[in-house]
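Forum > Structural Biology > Help requests

Title: Can anyone predict the 3D structure of Sodium channel protein type 9 subunit alpha?

Hi all, first post here. I have the sequence for Sodium channel protein type 9 subunit alpha but no way to get a structure on my laptop. I'd be grateful if someone could post the structure tokens.
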Amino acid sequence: MASSSDQFKQAIPFHRPEAGIYYVALAIIGGFFLWNIFVSVVVDSFMRIKKQEEVNALITQDQAKWVRTKRYIERFPLISSKKTPKEPWRRYTLKIFDLIMKDSFEYFILGCIIVNVIFMMSSYEGESTKFGVALWAIDIVFVVIYWMEAVLKIIGLGWRQYFRDWWNVFDFLIIIVSVFTIGFSTPGQHHAANGIRLVRVIRVVRLLRRAPVLRALFMTLVYAAPSLLNIGLLLFVVFFIWGIFGMELFGKVVHNDGYGNYIPYDSNDGISNSINFENFGRSLLVLYRIATNDNWGSILLATGAHKDRCPDKKYLTTSSDGAFQYECGHFGLAVAYFVSFSIFGTLVMVNLFIAVILDTYSDNIDFEKRMVKLEPAAQWLSVWKEKDKEENGRIRGRLGIKNFIITLKESPVLVGLMLDALNLRLNIDEDQKESDINYDDVELIKKKSVELYGRVDFVGHSNAADIKVTVTNDHINAILTSRRLRLLCRLIHRGTLKEKLVIFYDEALFAIASLVVGPEFRMLPYATDRYVHISDWWEEEKEETAPTF
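Reply #1:
Sure, ran it for you. Structure tokens for Sodium channel protein type 9 subunit alpha below:
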């Protein structure tokens, strides 16, 4: 347009530069503002539904509980400290244990991984033989370093403790792959194994353990995974429906460029041997091009080619497999098909991915605010570890139900928060009745609140004074009879002498955190022969005998 001169005349470069203003304005107003307004409407609708339902609109309750549980466990991980070796040669293994437990050792290995990746990046097609041999030798050096790391950790920690850590299992598998690739490569000609050698690059993931910012970004994707999976499945349904419609409407359209020219070869423009709706797979590929805005205008013109824009009748032959006869397209149907998919498939469904990422980021901020209130759970965690070791010999992440009650009794600050969430009193003075207090007297309320509630404020924040409070069965009874601690006891070793009810750490942490900081989730149906609600167990204990722990 900027080069047009006059009707039926040759174009002159930049003859009308003012015409460019129109396209710039269209790109800014149409591309930036209108498009993003549509995106904002989708995101706003998503957020409004979430606010009404008080949960993420794109995930199930089980998925929401999984995400919350992972968040809580990451903040309060049940990780046992590494045990010192007890082998006969303990004097030597202790030195190795001290070595591998140092941060400097971990940083050295991370540095080797980064340098190794850099050398792997330096390989190129047509490299000299000497350069290839040098890279091969350096490759062996790094593999030997990784093997030495594994051997030192196995000696220092022991086989059982070494393979109990998933990071060590991850590293060991990659080391085995590294040895395999070295064995099948030769100096200067190791490109055949490059595909497998690249697996070692995955070890860079170990940086997540030492880089909080990278770990936060990575965990954001992990927490968004259930929502993204659900949207992906919904998007596939949309693709499936429009793919079937595309086969029915345009599966017989003759191969053409939309301007009346027949295309007998593979082409990325128009309808051709590779781009068509003749089967379901190719229909999905065309829809992918539409969803990604990858030059689908020519396909629209080709599927809508009719009359003078349709190729000559001699090209309307029978397909190579004899299944159908080619025909011209229909412009109206093509416009309706492509525009409708652009709206539902691109503007709505694809932008839901953006809504999920924004929602996860917002949830991260909200979660951090809630975690400030849950800090007393750290004390409860330390008590759990001690009881876990006493009961199971090592930390197994589960406790007998009575030991679980003991962990609560030894965590008065956390119990105070749980009672606050239930609007119950923490510690009532034997000589003081609630009816004796004038709640209009602010000074008196402040004076008596420590005795009556275990804290000065009434908003549920933890207070150091709570640690002096003795948690009794009355406090535990108040929590459990409310039935708002939605925690199930699991029956293990059924039908044996070892049969007992246990509480798993992740489920207990989730139930307590949900009660204290919210949001609370309703209890889903469960198998009564394998699970018992902790409140039901408590009622049975009270009926049989007064619980004593």
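The chain has four domains: 1-53, 90-210, 220-369, 377-544. The radius of gyration is 34 Å.
Shout if anything looks off.
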